Amino acid sequence: MTLKNFYGLKRIEKKIGVLKSIFDLYVKKELVGYLKFGKIVGVKKLIEYLAINNGQKIKHEEAACKCSLKQHRVKEYIEILKETFLVAAIRPFFTNKNKELVKIPKIYFLDNGVRNFFINNFNKVELRNDSGFLFESFVLQELTKSGLDNIKFWQDKQKHEVDFIADLISKQTPIEIKFKEKLKQNDFIGLNTFLANYNPKKAYLINTGEQKDKGKIKIRLPFNLNKSITP
Q: What is the pTM of this model?
């Protein structure tokens, strides 16, 4: 092992130790304040399940089966995890707001480091098969920090999708996330479909390379979102 690799390994071990300490503190100071101690095991199982399925639709009945929990407990625990800022639930966008309340949400971790801790994966992002979801989570964190707190996702009956919709009631801004440097025509299908259906003033495609706008679609890196998208 080279000296560089040795110090790199030590840094990773130190980060893992810090994350473990953060979770221990989270359990002792936050969760115990909401739950009886005997329920902590069930919550930890659920957190691991959510970490594995980060950024995906979570059905309460499916999660309950996987984690050996009652369905109403899964719903209760997810609410607690949201209240303690471990995860965010992103609901689908509908013009009929009643539908948003009953449709299946996507669950994202609000800290990629904590999520990595639960799945025990600290590999470089280019070596991972979940790099797209990690990038989505990062963008969601940036949007949240910039002041957007009403973020949704969109999917139509033909399975066209947009990762995030900044829903400002009077207007909606679609935001598609692509973890790639070179974009292809089919990367714009979801945004173009949303534009055709709802006619927003502009849309965003966040990627890691290109920054050349295409009509209403503004192509941006993830580091300059707050000035562009926030009201």
A: 0.84
In degrees and rounded to multiples of 5, residue 100 shows phi and psi of: -60, -30
Domains by residue range for the chain, with CATH: 123-231 (3.40.91.50)
List the structure tokens of 128. 């991972």
Helices (H) and strands (E) in the chain, counts: 10, 8
Dihedral over Cα of 105, 106, 112, 115: its sign: positive
The whole-angstrom separation of Cα 166 and Cα 229 is 8
**pLDDT tens-digit map of 129-187:** 999 999 999 999 888 888 887 899 999 889 899 999 999 878 899 999 999 999 999 99
Q: Dihedrals φ, ψ of 205, to 5°?
A: -120, 115
Whole-number Å distance between alpha carbons of 219 and 206: 6
